Amino acid sequence: MKLQQIDKVRYRKHLNMASVVATAVLIFFALVYGQILIHFFAAADGNNFKLNLAGVVFGVISLLVVFNLVRRHPYLIEVMYVWELKQANNKIYRKLHHIKTALANSDNTNIDAITILHYYYAASKQQYNLDNNTLTMEALTADIAKLDSLITAQNLTISVDDYNSDLLKQF
User: Fold this and answer.
1) What is the per-residue pLDDT for 38?
2) pLDDT given at position 121
3) What DSSP string runs through 105-161?
4) How far is residue 81's CA from residue 14's CA, in Å, rounded to a whole number?
5) Positions in the chain whose pLDDT score sits under 70
6) What is the per-residue pLDDT for 52?
7) What is the rounded distance in angstroms from the CA atom of residue 59 to the CA atom of residue 79?
8) What are phi and psi for residue 110, nearest 5 degrees?
């Protein structure tokens, strides 16, 4: 996944609107399905918890179907980009310990590990900025500075465009 510039204000506006709409659609579907199920299958004792729960489940399924249909809409470009960015970061994060261990065991000469870390830190920085996550930014900045000094010491030229998810297969 290639990193792109995203307008933070636009992203936050579209994310908030998408969240409100998704919540409203879920509530609507859950209520409609619940009422339909109660209308046709109401219990004699008046306990319709299971039917209402089934309505919520059907509502979630319907919301997922609707979301799958509209997720490539131009309005959601930034939201989907950040969602995919978070997925890419999670793939790296699951192997981060192995990547850092491989880098340490190779006396800091593992180019693939350096490339992955360079991308991971850049993607994380973008993600943290877009999501207003300032709590971990200081530690991330320190990690970036440490990696940048390693890249400089090794006389390497590493770009985020050098990253490919296939690099993770070796870790």
Assistant:
1) 94
2) 97
3) HTTT--HHHHHHHHHHHHHHHHHHHHTT--TTHHHHHHHHHHHHHHHHHTT----GG
4) 12
5) none
6) 94
7) 22
8) -75, 100
CB 160 within 8 A of CB 119: yes
Reduced to 3 states (helix: H, G, I; strand: E, B; else coil), residue 17 is helix
Read off the pTM.
0.84
Distances (CA, A) of 55 to 42, 64, 119: 13, 14, 43
| Dihedral sign, Cα of residue 131, residue 135, residue 140, residue 145 | positive
CA torsion, ordered 136, 142, 144, 148, to nearest 10 deg: 180
Looking up tokens 């971990």 gives 136
Let me know how long the chain is.
Answer: 171
